Amino acid sequence: MNRLAISVNEAEQASRAHVPLRSRMVPHLVRWGLTGVALVFLALFLVVPLVVVFDQAFAKGVRFYLAALADPDARAAIALTLGVALIAVPLNLVFGLAASWAIAKFEFRGRALLTTLIDLPFSVSPVISGVVYVLLFGAQGWLGPWLEAHDLQIVFAVPGIVLATIFVTFPFVARELIPLMQAQGSDEEEAARVLGASGWQIWRRVTLPNVKWGLLYGVILCNARAMGEFGAVSVLSGHIRGQTDTMPLHVEMLYNDYNFAAAFAVASVLALIALATLVLKLVAERRLAAAMQVRG
After folding, report:
1. Are 176 and 215 in contact (CB under 8 A)?
2. Quick one: pLDDT band at residue 16, thresholds 50, 70, 90?
3. Of 79, 251, 246, 240, whose CA–CA distance to 156 is shortest?
4. Which of 264, 282, 247 is nearest to 161 (CA)?
């Protein structure tokens, strides 16, 4: 009985302190050991590579670093990367909102199939998706003769890069919003409808505000993948300097040309974008968790 009373007392104290009882039972040595292993892993695979990137980027001085970024090919690669992201991310935002709203709020035939298709880019290699587009739109592809007859070029041109980027990034927004909308349910939308709100008013004043932080989180992930995509874009770009090279492809070409300092200079821009993405992701995660806690 005494042991039972002690266990109940410990459970109550842990609950009041919002600390899981299991973590109190783990020896301090084990916890510190696991924490140390995690920190060493992060240092080896995250911090050290970042330090190397910036160290090599400035190896020849700030003047060479700025000159590498001011190079016409580098500026074209940066502009193309940003332009492709500006096209792909808004389109995926619209698709993600529509798909998640339909899947989470309605029952219809083909709902499970739509959910499966959304996950398709996660299970298909980006290189394979690039090859599929080549087989569809290439000169020897199914639609190649028709495109050539109408003087349209998709493969080895910017449209192909945009299509490949949209394909590999379209699950991110939808996959973030679907479970969020399902967890929230439809009670508020139904209440708004009973009060006389129109479909657009329900969407704008009820549904969208409830998912805004989850939407931002999905957009951040989508943008990060769009700017860093390599496999599918590499297949479809043709590696034309100053025209179809995105930043990842430009880094590869500079590295293959043994222009290491310039390659790391452009790579440092991608690293800065990644760090900014992590900060925004952390803010969005905290906002989303706070919003879910308030709703709960």
Report:
1. yes
2. very low
3. 240
4. 247
Q: Around Cβ 212, how many Cβ atoms within 10 Å?
A: 14
Confidence at residue 68, expressed as pLDDT on a 0 to 100 scale:
93
Assess if residue 91 is contained within a domain.
yes
- The segment with the largest mean pLDDT, out of 100-109, 192-201, 248-257, is 248-257
Residue 144 sits in a domain of what CATH number? 1.10.3720.10
Q: Are 136 and 62 spatial neighbours (Cβ–Cβ below 8 Å)?
A: no
Does some domain include residue 39? no
Give the whole-angstrom CA distance, residue 224 versus residue 123: 19
**Using CA atoms, how far apart are residues 270 and 3, in angstroms rounded to an integer?**
57
SS (H, E, C) the chain: CHHHHHHHHHHHHHHHCCCCHHHHHCCHHHHHHHHHHHHHHHHHHHHHHHHHHHHHHCCCCHHHHHHHHHCHHHHHHHHHHHHHHHHHHHHHHHHHHHHHHHHHHCCCCCHHHHHHHHCHHHHCCHHHHHHHHHHHHCCCCCCHHHHHHCCCCCCCCHHHHHHHHHHHHCHHHHHHHHHHHHHHCCHHHHHHHHCCCCHHHHHHHHHHHHCHHHHHHHHHHHHHHHHHCCHHHHHHHCCCCCCCCCHHHHHHHHHHCCCHHHHHHHHHHHHHHHHHHHHHHHHHHHHHHHHHHHHC
Residue 148 is assigned to a structural domain of this protein: yes
Structural domain of 188: 61-294
Q: Which of 295, 116, 106, 102 is nearest to 213 (CA)?
A: 295
**Does the pTM of the predicted model rise above 0.85?**
no
Cα separation of 230 and 162, whole Å? 12
Give the total number of structural domains in the chain. 1
Instruction: Calculate mean pLDDT across residues 104-117.
Output: 87
33 assigned to some structural domain = no
